[in-house]
Amino acid sequence: MTAPPPTTLKTERLLLRRAVEADLTALHEIMADAQTMRFWSTPPHADLDTTRQWLASMIGAPASTSDDFIIDLDGVAIGKLGAWRLPEIGFLLARRHWGRGYAGEALAAFVAHAFSGEVGFLIADVDPRNTACLALLSRAGFRETGRALNTWQVGEAWCDSVYLRLDRPPA
Ligand SMILES: CC(C)(COP(=O)(O)OP(=O)(O)OC[C@H]1O[C@@H](n2cnc3c(N)ncnc32)[C@H](O)[C@@H]1OP(=O)(O)O)[C@@H](O)C(=O)NCCC(=O)NCCS
Fold this sequence. Notes:
single chain, alpha+beta, Aminopeptidase, five-stranded antiparallel β-sheet, three-stranded antiparallel β-sheet, binds coenzyme A
């Protein structure tokens, strides 16, 4: 018996698909950018090997606990969005593509996909200074459930967290 084809999600402008090794260069360009990584849980990737390891953990994450996607625009990886470990979502987009609604479009597709399966709720952990991310999640219906101080050490600096949650709408 052959395995079912991997899940893909189509939106008006984007394809959400599983990560492959060929995404390395495009992802490294995104994850080496200090501004894009300003509120990520790790410093910008200093070398290709750091991104290679990160990509390997995305590709190798078990389907029972992970549901993560590459955001693909016209055949090129421009970001990632999904849950490396359900139910927590994480995403980033190449800086040159910010401000065009791509992240919102991808998030709406992912939420619909997640809630069409077993997932009853999604959560996010966001740096309170990350206004673009908070606005995106708020537009998608996520609501704040709490805050905490000094939750992440990234390089030398400690960061805080806003916790958000989106429940699956009642059937
Ligand atoms: C968080 C992040 C993905 C948001 O990207 P984004 O492009 O701002 O998000 P959206 O896709 O929702 O786009 C919304 C913007 O596009 C504009 N826009 C343009 N065309 C649009 C369209 N067709 N539909 C919707 N919005 C559109 C909106 O007006 C809005 O602009 P504004 O931010 O000036 O108000 C991006 O800032 C990022 O990658 N940040 C770094 C990584 C990060 O911090 N990730 C979160 C950690 S979990």
